[in-house]
Design goal:
CATH superfamily of chain A: Molybdopterin biosynthesis MoaE subunit
Oligomer: heterodimer
Shape of chain A: globular
CATH topology of chain A: Aldehyde Oxidoreductase, domain 3
CATH topology of chain B: Ubiquitin-like (UB roll)
Number of domains of chain A: 1
Helix content of chain A: 25-40%
Distance between the termini of chain A: 25 Å
Number of strands of chain B: 5
Order of helices and strands of chain A: EHEEHEEEHEH
Number of domains of chain B: 1
Distance between the termini of chain B: 36 Å
Order of helices and strands of chain B: EHEHHEEE
Shape of chain B: globular
Largest interface: A-B, 28 and 16 residues
């Protein structure tokens, strides 16, 4: 049984993260974890059109919202551990933007927990992406996608 | 009562400032009232909030619907739909 004290590890930071050390932090010394699912989201260059993404966030609320979603995911999927890290500031193509790690006894819960966390993070956590165009022109704010709302709503 | 308003992304850019403290008239009770009131403050607000249906609002850093009361709010965040992840 998962411990009632399982709490999500939530961080919002400008610096990069290391996947292996974040996995190790969730699994070290534990013998009840049967599945670890990690998702990391990276910055694309959109076929060379993009030189960077600028990630803006609402300090305080971003962490609080990620924590709220993480607590729901832990309870719903009986996760043994959950980490969510989101970067802010200027991020170059090829660099990491976001990391979610879910651990559970079995794979389905870990897959579902990570998927659920990402679907709600994208639509509820206060982050916004602005594009920097490769040709130096001022980029646009990325528009929210209906597909992201649909992905979230499938969990109802 | 004075209320602290914080703006993000293109709402912030169009209004031209990240935050401000404003005095709201007593007639402003709901989030909807607030957005309509702000639209009357000038062209930059009108430009930022011309489609209020897409605007998201948080009271004291928690998401709220537009029919929610803003009475007693310390901080109200106003921003576009989120695009993180």
């Amino acid at each position: 049984m998962p411990s009632v004290t399982t709490v999500p590890i939530i961080r919002v930071q400008s610096t990069d993260f290391d996947l292996q050390s974040e996995i190790d932090a969730l699994t070290a010394g534990r013998k009840n974890i049967g599945a670890v699912v990690t998702f990391s989201g990276l910055c694309r260059d959109e076929q060379g059109a993009l030189s960077a993404l600028e990630l803006e966030h609402y300090p305080g609320m971003a962490e609080a919202e990620m924590r709220r979603i993480g607590e729901i995911a832990i309870e719903r999927f009986l996760l043994l551990g959950l980490t969510a890290i989101h970067r802010h500031g200027k991020i170059l193509p090829g660099e990491n933007i976001v990391l979610v790690i879910a651990t559970a006894s079995h794979r389905q819960a870990a897959f579902d927990g990570a998927n659920f966390m990402m679907d709600f993070l994208k639509t509820s956590a206060p982050f916004w992406k602005k594009e920097h165009a490769a040709d130096g022109t001022a980029g646009d704010w990325i528009a929210a996608k209906d597909a992201d709302d649909a992905a979230r709503d499938k969990w109802r | 009562m004075k209320t602290n308003l914080v703006y993000f992304a293109w709402v912030r850019e169009r209004i031209g400032k990240p935050e401000e403290e404003i005095e709201l008239p007593d007639s402003v009770v709901t989030v909807s009232d607030l957005l309509n009131h702000l639209k009357s403050l000038g062209e930059e607000y009108e430009n930022a909030l011309q489609f209020p249906d897409v605007i998201r609002v948080a009271i004291n850093q928690e998401h709220v619907e537009h029919d929610e009361s803003i009475v007693g709010a310390r901080e109200i965040g106003i921003f576009p739909p989120m695009t993180g992840g």
